[in-house]
Amino acid sequence: MTATTVVKQQAGPRAAADPAPARRGRRRARLIALLFVFPALLLLGALVVYPVLFSVGRSFFDASGTRFVGGDNYTEMFRDPATLKAIRNTTIWVVVAPALLTGLGLILAVLVEKVRWATAFKLLLFMPMAVSFLAAGIIFRLAYDEDPDKGVLNAAVVSVHDAFKGTSTYPTARGRTGLLTQDPDGSYRTTASAGDTVALPMVGVLPKDLPGDTSPARTAAARKAAPGELRGVVYLDFTPGGGGRQGKVDAEESGLPGMKVEAVRDGRTVASATTAADGSFRFSGLTAGPYTVKLPESNFAPPYQGVSWLGPTLVTPAIIGAYLWIWTGFAMVLIGAGLSTLPRDALEAARMDGANEWQIFRRITVPLLAPVLTVVFVTLVINVMKVFDLVYIIAPGPVQEDATVLATQMWLVSFGGGNDQGLGSALGVLLLLLVIPAMVFNVRRFRNSER
pTM for the full model? Predict the structure, then answer.
């Protein structure tokens, strides 16, 4: 062995262990990775980091942005009734919407597994996700319209109500002044005795609104009452084309069929009847003496108009309902993906041990799906904190403040008439602080699942 060979053998391990080339390789790999990531980092800084830092700084200045006010905007934020209402509504959203969506998604995901056309059903429920929040807001603004002729929900409610309770026959009718007395409850009355024939003139009904089977009231008004009998006619005291005499039944004047009439004595209803096609009615078997002939207020009650979905009381639940329509498919698909990964042997073993489907669902399915349910719930919590479009579009102007959440309040204060971007920035910072814990929790869950 020569001296040169010995030197090479001794130098070889030291040369292989030299860390300089390895460090240069790592630095080169990092540089290449940074070059690829740099455009994304630039966009992230311009679109996220800079606006956040600017908003934090802007929140310490007044509305004009020229005078430093310290924490005054944050103090004012918690003194403003509108902001406190926005915080309350946001809390309702965070508590109600994610819980309902997660529950609905879980139930639908379990049920869809047992449906033959599961894919088509999932597609149908997921389709609202393709609709923009603007379009969905317009759709539900129309659906919630209080006019039953426009709002589909109130049309259904009114149909069901009228099917069971009915509606008034002549909501616009009123008694002829000076001939009938109106009571505070809206009913009309006059006085008659057994053996009389009484005429009850009404106005305020358009001829075109009369029932198709109505007939002239002249003949009914001419009938004489027998002893112990009280007859009468309820008629429209209006002659088409003009003419006629007020308070007298003229030849061309129509009866008002379907009117409820009562005979009252000593504050007690002793007889009741409904008018015929010619407006006539008859009470028989009455004792002698005077009676109050009454047209109850139910004849003139305005038609049932349904529920005020967008009123101050129901506007927030109504908007949450629209949000559920959009996001239920999202929750169902995510939970369904987790459900498909469950070990089927555990479910089959439980069935073989005699467990019913409810026990399997409660004791096996839900515990095994707990990580997926948590991720869905937290994701929805983050999402509902930022809801803006639906609230702004669905809630009418008069109840906008009753439905406002932090996101809409931030916009209204900054650009929607308040023109106080200092206070608006403080609201934005508050919203960011509320979202960060949920985001951190979700990120940690993802990291733990990867491990």
Answer: 0.74
Q: What is the DSSP letter of 209?
A: G
Residue 9 clears pLDDT 60, i.e. is over it = no
For 133-139, which contacts have Cβ atoms below 8 Å and span 24 or more sequence positions?
Answer: 133/326, 133/389, 133/390, 133/393, 134/389, 134/393, 136/322, 136/325, 136/326, 136/389, 136/390, 137/322, 137/389, 137/390, 137/392, 137/393, 137/394, 138/393
Q: Which CATH number fits domain 81-155+308-414: 1.10.10.60, 3.40.50.2000, 1.10.3720.10, 2.160.10.10?
A: 1.10.3720.10
Q: What is the DSSP letter of 17?
A: T
Q: Which two tokens stand for residue 352?
A: 């073989």
Contact 84, 405 (CB under 8 A): no
Contact call for residues 200 and 188 (beta carbons, < 8 A)? yes
**Which H or E element spans position 332?**
helix 315-340
Q: How many residues does the chain have?
A: 451
Which DSSP symbol is given to 208?
G
Q: How many whole angstroms separate alpha carbon 229 and alpha carbon 219? A: 18
pLDDT for the residue numbered 7: 45
Rg (CA), the chain: 38
The residue ranges of every structural domain in the chain are: 23-54, 81-155+308-414, 174-299
For residue 7, the 8-state DSSP code is H
User: What is the C-alpha separation between 300 and 286, in angstroms, rounded?
Assistant: 27
pLDDT surpassing 50 at residue 310: yes
Q: Which residues are 193's β-sheet partners? A: 290
Residues 6+ apart with CB under 8 A from 435: 382, 385, 386
> What pLDDT shows up at residue 267?
86
Cα distances from 132 to residues 28, 139, 327, in angstroms, run 45, 11, 12
**Which residues make Cβ contacts (< 8 Å) with residue 145, sequence separation at least 6?**
151, 154
Comparing CA positions, the residue from 303, 432, 369, 406 lying closest to residue 103 is 369
pLDDT at position 18: 60
Question: What type of residue is 392?
Answer: Y
CA distances in angstroms from 409 to 43, 82, 314, 380, listed in the order given: 28, 8, 19, 20
pLDDT in tens, 198-222: 999 999 888 888 888 889 988 888 8
